[in-house]
Design goal:
Its EC number is 6.3.5.-. It is an enzyme of class 6 (ligase). Keywords: ATP-binding, Ligase, Nucleotide-binding, Protein biosynthesis. Heterotrimer of A, B and C subunits. By secondary structure, this protein is α+β, with helices and mostly antiparallel strands. It folds into three domains: 218 residues, no CATH class; 113 residues, no CATH class; 58 residues, Orthogonal Bundle (Arc Repressor Mutant, subunit A), CATH 1.10.10. 41% of the residues lie in helices and 18% in strands. The strands form four sheets. Strands 1, 2, 6, 7, 10, 11, 12, 13 and 14 form a nine-stranded mixed sheet that branches. A three-stranded antiparallel sheet has the order 5-4-15, with no helix packed on it. β13 and β14 form a beta hairpin. The two termini are 54 Å apart.
């Protein structure tokens, strides 16, 4: 794989990238209170006395939030710390009622782990390991709204206290492509595990992008941190644009300042937000209201037992046991919704055809990745809003499998399924689309096609064998696509001698 370099006026520069991903934990209530976490509620309608930092209110850890963070750590093969501690990160901001954030600095819940990524889809064998330093659990702050009043800013505390996992990578990425691949892989795992919905548009997953540049293989440069980037595409853009900006500053004789920056997607540029604080600026100390978090063996065993089959393992099974191509396996496992849809389709198809999953896997995978995805893209729908269910798709595939309809007719039936929502069997019966295996009718159609194209018949017999496909197509057209293709092929071969 070609190494990514920024070519400056004075030579090549290497990019060093680390990501801090904030993932909202899937839970019905907040990290230290019972307030709802439902997205889109009226401002300040989901705020408990704890979230609002009323005097005398004490935090109580949400067991489900801790469970989801532990499961996430197990999914990335990380060390799980049975003893961890919450700290207070002290800073004043209008949307942080307590004046401090409850987080974990010194003793996080999850220690070191890692993810394997494929930076270049054209080189699937080129796998790179990205180290993960830690996952710690913390509470989110609220939200300031500056456009609601001409002279005042409003505060919405609905997000205040929402549980976040901060997943901190090592600075192991060296290109925009690697950063994008890492974020996609991490998002996929979180969604498989069910610990975060990964909805970057709603803010339930966002990334702080740390970028520095150096001469290839040299000492690490000064990094900047671009905050709250909310899409994979924007993360990749930040890496490229911020790296180019830093190279320009250095080559013009300037120095890079360690600072926090923001990304403007309209201008595709980063801009300075504030100087970067260090840990001592926040005055961390153990939270006196929360005892250390101690996890017992039964809790950890339940967390591990609850993990689903993860994307890498599922991909390997699809290739090894089901005989699917690496390309199809990648598509089918990239998103958890796709994998679940395919699993149901596979089970239903095998049951309808009285075969094993491996016998129908290629038929099901090819149909899903080409026919259904093509139709959904064309109509602007997703698998969640697909008008055709896995059971209905299995019925259609079974009709092709047993010879009731041809592949050509199946495409017509599928279009009618999309339009009407009716089942394949109902449409075939209603429209009279059953495939004919009447050899007499097929022989008659073949005889007419060959008789009408005597010149081409002579050309075929003279060695132009490619015309065989023409005769098949004409025969199928004459029989409105309802003839059994295998019988048509056999009849033409026989007639041509």
């Amino acid at each position: 794989m070609t190494e990514y370099r920024i070519e400056g006026a004075t030579g090549a520069w290497e990019v060093v990238v680390g990501l801090e991903v904030h993932a909202q934990v899937t839970s019905n209530s907040k990290l230290f209170s019972g307030a709802s976490t439902k997205f889109g509620a009226e401002p300040n309608s989901q705020v408990s006395l704890v979230d609002a930092a009323m005097p005398g209110m004490l935090p109580v850890p949400n067991r489900e939030c801790i469970r989801q963070a532990v499961r996430t750590g197990m999914a990335i093969e990380a060390e799980i710390n049975a003893w961890s501690r919450f700290d207070r990160k002290n800073y004043f901001y209008a949307d942080l009622p307590q004046g401090y954030q409850i987080s974990q600095l010194y003793h996080p819940l999850v220690g070191e782990g890692g993810l394997d990524i494929v930076p270049d889809e054209k080189q699937p064998e080129a796998i790179k390991r990205i180290g993960i330093e830690r996952i710690h659990v913390e509470q989110d702050a609220g939200k300031l709204m500056h456009d609601q009043h001409p002279t005042m800013s409003y505060v919405d505390l609905n997000r205040s206290g929402v549980a976040l996992m901060e997943i901190v990578s090592r600075p192991d990425m060296r290109s925009p492509a690697e950063a994008g691949a890492y974020l996609r892989k991490l998002r996929s795992i979180l969604r498989y595990v069910g610990s975060c919905d990964g909805n970057m548009e709603e803010g339930s997953m966002r990334a702080d992008v740390n970028v520095s540049v150096r001469r290839p293989g040299g000492e690490l440069g000064t990094r900047t941190e671009t905050k709250n980037v909310n899409s994979v595409r924007f993360v990749m853009a930040v890496v490229e644009q911020e790296a180019r900006r830093q190279v320009g500053v250095i080559e013009d004789g300037g120095t890079i300042v360690q600072e926090t920056r923001l990304y403007d997607p309209d201008r595709n540029e980063t801009r300075s937000m504030r100087s970067k604080e260090d840990a001592h600026d926040y005055r961390y100390f153990p939270d006196p209201d929360l005892p250390p978090l101690v996890l017992d063996g039964d809790f950890l065993a339940e967390c591990r037992a609850s993990l689903p089959e993860l994307p890498d393992a599922k991909r390997a099974r699809y290739i090894g046991e089901l005989g699917l191509s690496a390309y199809n396996a990648d598509i089918l496992t990239a998103e958890v919704e796709t994998a679940r849809w395919f699993e149901v389709l596979l089970t239903e198809t095998a049951a309808r055809q009285g075969k094993g999953p491996a016998d129908v896997a290629k038929q099901a995978a090819n149909w899903l990745t080409s026919e259904l995805f093509g139709a959904l893209n064309r109509t602007g729908k997703t698998l969640d809003t697909s008008p055709v269910s896995p059971a209905q798709a299995a019925e259609l595939l079974a009709l092709v499998g047993d010879g009731t309809i041809s592949g050509t007719i199946a495409k017509q039936v599928f279009e009618k399924m999309l339009e009407t929502g009716d089942g394949a069997g109902t449409i075939v019966e209603r429209e009279g689309l059953k495939q004919t295996s009447d050899t007499g009718a097929i022989d008659a159609a073949v005889a007419k096609v060959l008789g009408d194209n005597a010149e081409k018949v002579e050309q075929y017999r003279g060695g132009k064998e490619a015309l065989f496909g023409f005769f098949v197509g004409q025969t199928m057209k004459a029989m409105q696509g309802k003839a059994n293709p295998q019988l048509v092929n056999a009849a033409i071969k026989k007639a041509l001698g």
